[in-house]
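Try this one yourself first.
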């Protein structure tokens, strides 16, 4: 087994979170995460975030536990690491590729088509939003600071649904995040 986890210590959503990485491939990482029952949405470019409550499931999936520094060294040696300074550009490339698949223009700040990965958190800007939909006909979860952000999220979701249907899908599944409108 070449999948490793560190000790959860990053607080968010009422728990603490750790990281799960592979020293070989993203495919191996996705397989181990699935065996441990981690949702595909927990993937973040080069690692999975996992809550403290998932430790037993990770152990049962054969994950090796290491310290934070060792986990970082493993990820660096793997060649899979996306540096913190490169993460915005990696997200922009992913968003542009997913928007191109749908024919969406303009491209939101962060866009994920499908269930693998999660968009950046909601920025602290009026008019910004983050939306998530896990099923094509399900309700979307919308985070917004104000009515303008909610309206922008609803308008984008309607466009995403229409584009997904044009592509033969029953509706949009994924996430989108965008900041305040410019200009």
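Now uncover the answer:
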């Amino acid at each position: 087994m070449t999948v490793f986890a560190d000790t959860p210590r990053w607080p968010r959503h009422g728990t603490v979170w750790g990281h799960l990485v592979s020293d070989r491939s993203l495919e191996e990482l996705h397989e181990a995460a699935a065996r441990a029952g981690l949702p595909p949405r927990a993937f973040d470019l080069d690692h999975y975030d996992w809550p403290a409550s998932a430790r037993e499931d990770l152990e049962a999936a054969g994950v090796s536990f290491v310290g934070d520094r060792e986990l970082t060294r493993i990820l660096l040696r793997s060649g899979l690491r996306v540096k913190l300074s490169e993460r915005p550009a990696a997200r922009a490339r992913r968003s542009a590729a997913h928007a191109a698949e749908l024919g969406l223009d303009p491209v939101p700040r962060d866009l994920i088509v499908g269930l693998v990965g999660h968009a950046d958190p909601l920025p602290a800007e009026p008019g910004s939003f983050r939306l998530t939909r896990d099923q094509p006909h399900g309700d979307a979860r919308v985070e917004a600071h104000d009515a303008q952000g909610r309206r922008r999220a609803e308008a984008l979701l309607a466009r995403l649904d229409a584009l997904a249907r044009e592509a033969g899908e029953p509706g949009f599944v994924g996430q989108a995040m965008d900041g305040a409108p410019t200009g």
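Discussion: The two ends are 51 Å apart (CA to CA). The chain has a mean pLDDT of 94.
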